[in-house]
Write a structure and sequence with these properties.
The protein is mainly alpha-helical and about 250 residues long. It has two domains: about 25-90, no CATH class; about 95-235, no CATH class. The chain is built from seven helices and no strands. The chain has helices at about 25-50, 65-90, 95-125, 130-140, 140-165, 180-200, 205-245. Helix 3 (about 95-125) packs across helix 5 (about 140-165), helix 5 (about 140-165) packs antiparallel against helix 6 (about 180-200) and helix 6 packs across helix 7 (about 205-245). The radius of gyration is 22 Å and the shape is flat. About 25% of the residues are buried.
Length: about 250
C-alpha cells in the first residue's frame, strides 16, 4: 500500500481477506494514560478504605506504610498503562484525517505539559529562588496549584492545536510551516501565561515572555513527535499487510 493512500484499512491478500489494522498511536497513548490514572486512583481509594490512610495532597506524611503505598501504586500504574495501551490498540481509526486530529491534540498536550512545566520552573527559580518557592508552596494550597496547572495547559494546548487545525495550518499530508504556526499560537500562549500567574497569585509581567517562548518550543517538538507517530502508524499497517498476505 502506498503511504499516501487515502485508503488506510485495505483488505489483505489472506484467505479470509483480513484487513490491515489501522491503529492510532496517539489514541493508544491516550487510553494508556486514562486507564493508568484510573488504576492509580483506585489504588489510593482502596488504601484509604482498608488501611485508613488519608490521601491529602497538601500534607503527605512520609512513613513506612506510605512508602509501601507508593511502591504498590507505581506497580498498578504500570499495569494500568499496559492495559490501556492494549485497549487503545483494539480501536481502529480508518480516517487519516481523524487520526491526524487525534495525533495533533495528543502531542500538543503531552509536549505542552512537559514544556510548560520547564518554563514555570525556570520562572519560579528566577523570580522566587529556592527558599521563596518553598515558602510560596507552603503558603498556598498545593492541590489547587496542581489543578490550576493542569487546567491551564489542557485548555491552552487544546485551543492552540484546534486553532491550527481549523485554520488549515496543520495538514495531514504536509509539513507545517513552523514560523507561521508559532506566530499564530503566541496570542493563546500569552493568555495562558497571564491566567497561570494570576491563578498562582504571582504579580509579574513574565507571562508575556512565557507566552512567546512556549510556542517556540511547542510547535517544533509537536511537529517532530507527530511525524514520528505517522511513520510508526505506517509501519504497523505495513506489518499487518505482510502478515495477511503470507
Amino acid at each position: 500500500m502506498k503511504r499516501n493512500s487515502t485508503i488506510i484499512w485495505p483488505k489483505g491478500n489472506g484467505k479470509n481477506g483480513t484487513k490491515a489494522r489501522a491503529i492510532s498511536p496517539a489514541l493508544v497513548r491516550f487510553f494508556s494514560l486514562i486507564v493508568s490514572i484510573v488504576f492509580l486512583i483506585g489504588t489510593l481509594f482502596v488504601a484509604n478504605k482498608t488501611l485508613g490512610i488519608e490521601i491529602n495532597l497538601d500534607n503527605i506524611p512520609v512513613g513506612e506504610i506510605n512508602i509501601q503505598l507508593v511502591i504498590v501504586s507505581l506497580i498498578f500504574l504500570f499495569i494500568g498503562m499496559q492495559l490501556g495501551a492494549a485497549i487503545g490498540s483494539l480501536i481502529e481509526v480508518r480516517s487519516e484525517k481523524l487520526n491526524h486530529v487525534f495525533s495533533t491534540l495528543w502531542h500538543y498536550n503531552s509536549q505542552g505539559y512537559i514544556l510548560w512545566s520547564l518554563i514555570l520552573i525556570c520562572f519560579l527559580s528566577k523570580s522566587l529562588g529556592k527558599e521563596g518557592i518553598v515558602s510560596w508552596a507552603k503558603s498556598s494550597k498545593q492541590s489547587l496549584l496542581l489543578f490550576y496547572f493542569i487546567i491551564v495547559v489542557l485548555v491552552g494546548c487544546t485551543l492552540i492545536g484546534s486553532f491550527l487545525l481549523l485554520t488549515g495550518q496543520l495538514k495531514k499530508d504536509e509539513k507545517p510551516k513552523l514560523m507561521q504556526c508559532i506566530i499564530s499560537a503566541i496570542p493563546i500562549a500569552i493568555v495562558m501565561g497571564y491566567v497561570q500567574l494570576r491563578l498562582f497569585h504571582l504579580d509579574s509581567f513574565a507571562w508575556l515572555v512565557m507566552g512567546i517562548i512556549f510556542p517556540l518550543m511547542l510547535i517544533p517538538a509537536a511537529a517532530f513527535t507527530m511525524e514520528r507517530d505517522k511513520q510508526l502508524r505506517a509501519k504497523i499497517m505495513k506489518r499487518f499487510e505482510i502478515m495477511n498476505s503470507s
